[in-house]
Each structure stands twice: as C-alpha cells, then as structure tokens.
Amino acid sequence: MSAPFHGKVALVTGAGSGIGRTSARAFAARGATVVVADLDAGNAAQTVKLIERGGGRASAVTVDVTDSASVQSMVDTAVSRHGGLHIAHNNAGVFTGLGPLADLDEGQWHAQLAVNLTGVMLAMKYEIRHMRDNGGGVIVNAASNIGDHVRYPGTGAYAASKAAVSTLTRAAALDHIKDGIRINAVSPGASNTSMTFMPGESEAERAARLNGTIPLGRLAETDEIVASVLWLASEESSFVVGHDLVTDGGASA
To answer: Minimal CA–CA distance to 137: which of 40, 44, 232?
Structure first.
C-alpha cells in the first residue's frame, strides 16, 4: 500500500469505534502517525492496538470534545508526543434525542449541539492555532447527509447540529485558507455502525428500515466513508476548499 501520509501526524476524534476507528487505521496504514482520541479510554486503547498489530504507529488520548481545556490538552498532547499536527479528522458525534420537536428533551438538544457542533468548533480552534503557526495543515469535519442535504421526521436536533457543522466548515475554510489550512467536511449517509441501530434492532430489521431510503440499496461500509476523508486529507484534493462531500449512496440526490 502506498504511503501518502508518511511523515504526517493525524488526529482523529471519536476514533474508538465506527467510522473514527476505520479512519485512524486507514491513516496509519498509509504512513501517518495517528493520535487516537476518544472519550472512552478503553476503546481508544483498542484502536491503538489494532493499528500497532498492523505495523502502524499510534497513541491514545482521552478527550471530552465539549470541554475547551480537554480539547486544548488533546492537541497539545499530540504535538508534544509526535512533534506536530498536520491532519485532523474531527469525527466525534452522537445521534440521540429522536422524536418530534415538540416532545424533544431539552437536555438531549443541548447534548447534541455540545458534541456535534461545539465539539467540532473547539477542535478546529486549537488545531488551527497550531497549524497556522507551523506551516498549515488539513482538517476534515464530520457533518451528515441528515441536516444540510436531507431531513427525516424525528431527527430535528441531529439535523440542526450537522447542518451547522457544514456551514461552520465553510466559514472556517474561508477564514483560514490563507493560513495554509484546507478545511472541508464529509457528509456520510447511513453506515454500518452501531449508531444506525434503533434500540433492540437486528441487522435484518435495520436493513428493512433503511435500505429502501438509499438508492444504492444498502448501507455504507465504514471504509467507503473513510475513502472520502482520505481523499480530502490528501494532496489529490489540493484545490478543494470549503466543500461538504456527500457520501450517501444517493439518499440526498
């Protein structure tokens, strides 16, 4: 496998599972030293083990993306351990508080905004501060096709948080491209992760519920989503700035 990220340090939030774990492993397989950041220290450590078993280099850091001091410490730790920070995939997110807006628990509203939106803002704030003073870098944020691209009943809080990530990504991209920092987003559709299951739902039941909403006829595998992340993080997308790349099998077409 080629090593387009050789010599680079890549930070992935929410890297203890799902798309984040696949992203961390993919960056490592392509030559990057990866900082595996997650709220769950055990899951982060497991991702590091998987990377190391594959011959890659990684270290774990525990982070609460809703807390400014914790996020600043995450970036500082990445830089002090590995000598820099060149790539960031701000992937941490939650999908909760489903139901009609009038019945939405306000705590769930605030929790989704805190993780999905404020978490991305704080991560970018400290990543950009380092990158701006050290020759630039690349940031890829996790938005969603639910939000700016398509809406479904009962997903108002999640949709609002992810639509805001898409807008924030574009705004930040304009603010900092002259600092040598390219900022883009990926908007995944329904993927084969634990986040797409309803409580108690089987894989067959999930497929029956979701596959008909996707023109391609199936959920994405996590490596299909990560392929978009890798492209946006690579020199192959060097002229792409402030873009939100929808990767959803045609669901929002």
So the answer is: 232
Give the tens place of pLDDT for each residue, 49-82: 999 999 999 999 999 999 999 999 999 999 999 9
The verdict on whether 158 is a catalytic residue reads: yes
Catalytic residue, candidates 33, 158, 192, 228: 158
Q: Where in the chain are the domains? A: 9-244
Q: What's the predicted TM-score (pTM) here?
A: 0.96
Which residues lie below 8 Å from residue 190, measured CB to CB, with a gap of 6+? 196, 210, 213, 214, 219, 220, 248, 251
CATH placement of domain 9-244 = 3.40.50.720
